[in-house]
Amino acid sequence: MNPVPNLHTPELFEQAYADRTWRDYRSLVALCVREAEPGLIVDVGAGLGFFVEACARFGLPCVGLEGSGYAVEVARRRYPMDIRQHLLEQSFPGDLEGAAAVVCNQTIEHLEETVANHVLREAYRILRPGSLLIVTSPSYYNRQQRTEATHVNLYTPTRLRTAVLRAGFGRCVATDTPRPILGTGRMGRWVVWTAFRVWPADWLSDSADCLAYKDTPEC
To answer: What is the DSSP string of 11-40?
Structure first.
């Protein structure tokens, strides 16, 4: 078995986040505002903290959890934000309980399966009833992403849904995008998107993304 790559090296962070700023995460902030109730947002695997920074700039409460001390230090120097060094195989901090949303943006594919399942269970635990988990990740069928050494646990949409539901979530809505199998032209993209809406087969999916909701207890 090949060893899991060290994801915490400065070189990997600089490469992964080259040319990015907080502005690149505005659509993800908008998704949280549109789909989640008001309240605390928790960013799991926060990297260099650009999403946490985007939330802070828009006045949204957000805490980032990141295993790399280097990344946390860089993020804090760049902008005042609540980003904490925290290994994801550990339980999430108690002061995060009652969160309105948990975001795993391009994180879960970097975690061994046991750690990924733990993260999903911890997300469920800290979320208040009726709240939201957002997961974005590449699909196993994305051939380019399979060549990335740090992608040790690529999901298919079906496998991600199964893992999320096993963690306790009552409803999981796929938000996947299709593979560009007919090229990037307008007509080719339209045909693929149309086919994908009718038949969202795993092998057609470029991503394994979902919105998952923690059920509200019945009165």
So the answer is: HHHHHHTTT--GGGGHHHHHHHHHHSPSS-
